[in-house]
Amino acid sequence: MVTRTVAPPPDGHVRVRMTVAYDGAPFHGFATNPDVRTVQDDLHEALSKVLRAPISVTCAGRTDRGVHARGQVVSFDADAGHFDAVALTRALNRMLAPEISVRDVALAAPDFDARISCVARSYRYRVLNSAWPDPLVRDLVWHVREPLEIGAMQLAADQILGEHDFTSFSKKNKSKVNETFVRTVDRAQWRRVGDTVQLEITANAFTHQMVRSLVGMFVEVGRGRRRPDEMGEALQAMSRMAVPSPAPPQGLELTRAHYPGDG
Predict the structure, then answer these.
(1) pTM for the full model?
(2) I need a labelling partner for 126 at 20 to 30 A (CA). Which of 82, 213, 218, 237 fits?
């Protein structure tokens, strides 16, 4: 594994770690994208106004259009003379609400980087499994009418634990050469909560559309259209043709970014 170094803040600056939550519905994803609204651009604009200098943030994990976050972590450098964590939190929440909420702001080590320092990410996916849709949560769930067999879905989820090549469940980036899709999944647990079935999944990292593609497969298993052991077969196939379409984005939420020393 290649060790990546992180440059320290410039003289007179401090490295800041910030945890944010956001409703992904109004945004075209986290990362800056020309001519559309993104979470990153909203953060850049607000931070630059409050700190009176151009600010650029790095995030723990880029989320796609419509995907939500409760535990997204970003890092940036700020002029030490203008940094006040409490005042910054209050100002940002006034400016960014209601779509974005700043949950925590703190000084970080000079070599901290929200992306590079992150050792694991956790996501939750919610499926509303009921005969009728619920308009009050339509932007937070995937509505599936057919009854889902959660035991079969868990048998399929057990097969992705550990290190695997997730080529079948990944959207390739044509601009990247020798892109690897090997990831290590530490947790993949389905549970029923009221009218929803929810996946809690943690891995060292995720490929593009990996969670949504996995959920698409899990739901086919839950519907009885595929056997649980077909999950293993799909992994071995290393082809997008071996799996169904990804689940829609609105059911997905980045719940936590994990770092060494966190409780």
Answers:
(1) 0.95
(2) 237
